[in-house]
Amino acid sequence: MPIDCKKLKSIKEAISLIKPGARIMVGGFGNAGVPNMLIEVLTESGVKDLTIISNDLGSPGVGLGKLLRNKQVKGVIGSYFNWNPEVAEAFNNGEIEVTLIPQGTMAEAIRAAGVGIPAFYTPTGVGTELAKGKETKTFNGKECVLQEAIGADFSLIKAHKSDELGNLVYYKTARNFNPLMAMGAVVTIAEIDEIVPTGSLDPECIVTPHIFVDILCLGR
Amino acid sequence: MNLVTIVEKEAARIRIAKRIARELEEMPKPLFANLGVGIPTMVPEYIKSEEIYIQAENGILGVGPPAAPGKEDRNLIDAGRRPITERKGCSYFDSATSFGMIRGGHIDVTVIGALEVDQEGNIANWIIPNGKQLGVGGAMDLVTGAKSVIVAMTHTTGDGKSKILSRCTLPITGYGALDLLVTELAVMRFVEGKLVLEEIAPEITLDELRQLTDAHFHTANELKVMRD
């Protein structure tokens, strides 16, 4: 049976939806689970003034590091940029804005955006530099900081397989932020390794239900 | 006294890892542990118990040994980006679930490195403000959420300055978060707001240890000699 998938588009077509100034979530942790082909074409597009929400910015010139080198990034929101020293460099030169968030708080804030929760309290980071200026409240004797949800216009995610509807499964530690970002953005573009007939994925094993997926692109 | 010569650097790291492995062996089982980068990742080499499960915050419970050269899978890594293997019965999950385990108090112990700790149990391990670093990762979630926090670090800096202070000078990761501190020279527990020396390395005296430690600490009634 030939594959019949209305969500399947070329990477170029998908990326052409992204306009200057967009807020984009990008999946991945280190170099695992990064939608590299989508990033490649986004870099070629030259679209500027992007705000990138991602755990890290890859390595120098690798993954999201490409977008940074190409001066397409206006701001980054993430948890760990030490793997790419060019982030600190660009920040120190006043070229980009950087917002650091504890990794768990960031993951939950992205999830919150996707599930209709505008903000939540967390004990993580209380009293530290990263909680400066954030509201606090004490619950059961434990002080917590208020974190607002983090949403975006687009999410660029990496999954392993999709069926024709867009139900996704992931691969090992390449899962990381991807299922959360699938929920957290207005338009979710998933780069996948393989597309399979609907019904061939075990429904018990589907991680991201297709309701969260708008566009599918084959990454290889 | 030149501290660096008391215990050579690699021997110091091995001693700390072995001592922490013993601590984990003695904790109730099953034990769920998250290990930071550096000395903490050496700990599993010295663990014998089958019931210690390693979690990595990038989304795996049941981390196996490091991947053999040539057998690496770039999509199977730990939180320090090292290629790892699966342990039988391991599972994968997204980052929110992963930090749910951590923040939700399901992880029994985290073993982390630190730049400084102090007598108030504060831990500083996320940044040296020098303009070159921009990253916190999961450090704050881990020290806040894990039931027990073990710090693994050398007693002093490379130039012999105490890393155990009366008050941390670097930005704090977690206030009062410390439970156990293991260096190559001492084992100290943070109990009821006090730093208590429980074990001392065989190479030094208590007076010498005090000279090498800026923090004020108490001494346990039964002070033991530290063994690997």
Provide a short characterization of the protein structure.
The complex is a heterodimer of chains A (220) and B (228). Chain A has a domain of 152 residues: Glutaconate Coenzyme A-transferase, CATH 3.40.1080. Chain A is built from 6 helices and 11 strands.
Description of the structure:
The complex is a heterodimer of chains A (220) and B (228). Chain A is of the alpha/beta class and 220 residues long. Chain A has a domain at 19-101 and 150-218: Glutaconate Coenzyme A-transferase (3-Layer(aba) Sandwich). Helices cover 22% and strands 29% of the residues of chain A. Chain A has six helices and eleven strands. In chain A, the strands form two sheets. In chain A, strands 1, 2, 3, 4, 8, 9, 10 and 11 form an eight-stranded mixed beta sheet that branches. Chain A has a three-stranded antiparallel beta sheet with strand order 5-7-6. In chain A, α5 packs across α6. In chain B, β10 and β11 form a beta hairpin. Chain B has helices at residues 9-26, 95-103, 139-145, 206-211, and strands at 31-35, 52-56, 60-66, 84-92, 109-112, 116-118, 123-124, 148-152, 164-165, 180-182, 186-191, 194-200, 218-225. By secondary structure, chain B is α/β, with parallel strands linked by helices. Chain B has one domain: Glutaconate Coenzyme A-transferase, CATH 3.40.1080.10. In chain B, strands 4-3-2-1-5-8-10-11-12-13 form a ten-stranded mixed beta sheet, with helices on both faces. A three-stranded mixed beta sheet of chain B has the order 7-6-9, with no helix packed on it. Chain B is 18% helix and 29% strand. The mean pLDDT of chain B is 95. Chain B contains four helices and 13 strands.
